[in-house]
Amino acid sequence: MRVSFLQANDRILVTGGAGFLGKHLLRKLAEHGYTNIVAPRSVDYDLREQSDVRRLLADLTPSMIIHLAASVGGIGANRANPGKFLYENLIMGALLIEESRKAAVQKFVTIGTICSYPKFSPIPFKESDLWNGYPEETNAPYGLAKKLLLVQGQTYSQQYNFDVIHLMPVNLYGPGDNFDPDSSHVIPAMIKKCFDAIEAGESEIVLWGDGSPTREFIFVTDVAEAIILAAEKYSSEEPINIGSGLEISIKELAELITELCNFPGKIRWDSSFPNGQPRRRLDIERARKAIGFEASTDFKSGLKATIEWYRQTRTAPARLHSTDHA
């Protein structure tokens, strides 16, 4: 059941619509029958600039905003850009929420991150544990920026009665992911290493850490579906985890990906590089109860689809989307 104000022809503005999740979300919105979707680009509106944010809202007059635009990347990118990731994610979200409130936007959907959780959160991560410690150091600036946007949404709900919700998806993967070695996350990074090694005739691939950490992954179209369900059904200050419930070690993940990529060589772990957070698995009960969401994509099937997409597009020019400011 949709929230009462939102009609099929009401304008929905998606920031970061040219990015990995954004492209899938735009398709899902259209499949759900929404006919008035806008996804401006950073060349037209730079969300780090207040004047551009004001102009964006004046030009497009959205009823709802889904804020996906972010500066984001894997462990290497986070280590190299802590100040950039903190500032750009914080300033984009803070300006958008403030100016949207002033412009009487009816609903604002903030996409947060599980990097906001404390480094040693009990497993599974419950939304109530969010403030019980400092995030894992390699991605803490990014996670803290997103956590401050949660606080902004909560305080704006309390003071201004502004309808802001905050979703925290676990690690995404799927066709169209970012395979740039300087900014990619673990699944595309592993897939690319396998293909590169096969083409070069190498007998091993080198991966960061020791393989012991665990992660949870969710297929990108499942996240797009969850965002729409939350936009339609949820109006609360409390954040929602968006996950699959599947926890797998990085070592097991690497073995599965090398098998699916048909890489016959060995994996060498370089423990001089950080592991990142020791474990990640979300408690997903709030999403089930509040918006009726459960991930539907089998992990192995999702990996196969991702690998096949990369195989078919590998020779095409690389398109970076780790940073999109509109």
- CATH level-3 fold name of the domain at 12-170 and 219-244 and 279-296: Rossmann fold
Separation, N- and C-terminal Cα atoms = 29 Å
Name of the CATH first level of the domain at 12-170 and 219-244 and 279-296: Alpha Beta
User: How would you sum up the global shape?
Assistant: globular
Low-confidence segments, ≥5 residues, pLDDT <50? 317-325
Look at the helices and sheets and give the structural class: alpha/beta
Mean pLDDT: 93
CATH architecture title of the domain at 12-170 and 219-244 and 279-296: 3-Layer(aba) Sandwich
Work out the oligomeric state of the chains in this entry.
single chain
Number of strands: 11
The CATH superfamily of the domain at 12-170 and 219-244 and 279-296 appears as NAD(P)-binding Rossmann-like Domain
Radius of gyration: 19 Å
Give the DSSP E fraction (strand runs of 2 or more residues): 5-15%
What descriptors fit this protein?
326 residues; alpha/beta; Rossmann fold; six-stranded parallel beta sheet; three-stranded mixed beta sheet; 10 helices
Descriptive notes:
41% of the residues lie in helices and 14% in strands. With 326 residues, it is α/β, with parallel strands linked by helices. The strands form 3 sheets. It has a 6-stranded parallel beta sheet with strand order 2-1-3-4-5-9, sandwiched between helices. The chain has a 3-stranded mixed beta sheet with strand order 6-8-10. Helix 4 runs parallel beside helix 5 and helix 6 packs across helix 10. The protein is globular and about 60 Å long.
Can you summarize this structure?
This protein is 41% helix and 14% strand.
